[in-house]
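Posting here for the record, re: flavin-adenine dinucleotide.
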Amino acid sequence: MDFNDSPDEAAFRAEARAFLDEHAPREPIPQYHKEKVEDDVILPRHREWQRTLYAHGWGALTWSKEYGGRGLGPIEQIIWNHELGRVGLGPSLFVAGLGMAGPTIIAHGTDAQKERYLEPMLKVDEIWCQLFSEPGAGSDLAGLACRAVLDGDEWIVNGQKTWCSGAQYADWGMMLTRTDPSAPKHKGISYFLLDMKTPGIEVRPLQQMTGDAHFNEVFLNDVRVPDANRLGPVNGGWLCTLTTLTNERMAMAGTEGMFTWSELVEHARANGVRMDGATRDEMARLFTWVKALELLNARCVTKLSRGEIPTAESSVMKLALARIVSKGTELGVRLLGPEGLLRTGTWQHQWLFAPAFHIAGGTDEIQKNVAAERVLGLPVEDRSDRETPFEDLSRS
Ligand SMILES: Cc1cc2nc3c(=O)[nH]c(=O)nc-3n(C[C@H](O)[C@H](O)[C@H](O)COP(=O)(O)OP(=O)(O)OC[C@H]3O[C@@H](n4cnc5c(N)ncnc54)[C@H](O)[C@@H]3O)c2cc1C
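Prediction output follows.
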């Protein structure tokens, strides 16, 4: 494992740093997981920043130049995320589009789809959301039941999606539907690009523990979707889905903007009176986790630089990240003493948001399954339902 930047990586880091030093917003951009903030406050700030990035050619690092990106690889993306964290900037609010829908359309879309969707996505003239999960299909996403039936050159969609982040303001959604129930579950799915203003779509907010409502249930009643909005072949949507999920995992692997160790240390110094032995112990244990995550990150970069995909490493990183955010924010609240009981502060808000990191983008248990099978070589989970027709599966 090599911890140092190669000459090319160092040159890229210097270029990114110079750009950010000149253009990064002086006022921090609000983040949902850090504080209570309304959509009409947060959206314009994130949009303005993305448009600045776009104007200077930094709008999407890993998209090819042909589609307005910078044509760089995952290592540069990791360096960029690191540099963003250094100037106090967190993840983009538009990750569903820039980090997930965009790469999927580039990989599987027709020329007409690339022409139509990519530029407005980069300039945030159009915002995207992800309509994958359903009440009965989350970890086992291929068990989804939302039905699409062909009628002429349109599909009629009926079903329910859930936990759809940003659907309340999204213009477009990546939507998975069941188009052949007689096929095994992975083989009867089609992927659509859904105009969220189509009649028959109802978006209902879901309130979280923080009091905010950033994700939604989405009900689809006789929603008509043109066949031209299908991404990939009929019943061949699972391959496109894997592209989206791989990109989602990559987008969620780093700690930048999710939790900052130095902020916790500063907070502990300011509240030294509450630093009893047990708290010191836990701070030290957390520090070892933070360092372990940095080492895992270095291992991922090394693998990427050899042209390998760090699948198991990114699962372990996501597990570690969720644990760090939960423990770090819990300590942050504890250091506040009785004031921690109030729901108003940023530590309390982050702590109430932290459970989401154990679920979103693949739960802890699913990441542990990956680690068990691919790192420890334990027996694989029973997947005997893979060849059974979807309609014959017993479903709850
Ligand atoms: C903040 C947030 C934002 C989200 N945004 C979106 C979004 O924009 N679009 C979208 O489509 N979805 C979104 N999701 C949904 C997310 O992808 C799912 O919640 C996640 O995949 C888990 O699915 P589930 O909630 O149905 O839980 P389930 O899959 O029903 O799991 C329930 C429990 O069973 C465990 N479990 C399930 N299967 C196994 C197994 N094989 N082995 C061991 N344990 C297992 C799980 O770990 C969990 O503890 C979001 C979730 C969160 C928290």
